[in-house]
Design a protein that fits this description.
single chain, 132 residues, 4-stranded antiparallel sheet, 3 helices, 25% helix, 30% strand
Amino acid sequence: MEKNVDTLVEDGHDVILIEGLKVATQIGILDSEKNRTQTVCFDIEMQTVTGYRRIVRETGAFVSYADAVEFILQKAASGGHIDLVEDWAEAVADFVLTNELVEGVSVKVTKPDIFEEAAGVGIRIKRCRPSR
């Protein structure tokens, strides 16, 4: 039985997810964090533009979570030290928003190994494409 996708109606925006992506990187502004590797965890929600599924069907263009994962892995592998999780979050948001099919993005970056009593500490930012 073939599905008729035209009978379905979008209810809000679709969201492409990346959850719990862990990478090892040099990060931290404290002296004790310099010259050592720490685990950083990423959770990303990429809000697509209105009509995303129709655009995918008609053009073949899409939002690739693999591109975002590759961006993060390459940035981590570059070996440069990053002072703040805020800098990571902004870089990921900037990259994700280069895809015209993404209208907004939420990026959570946490360091899970800072406090034994906490699952993680970090930041969550939300960014969107400027109004045209």
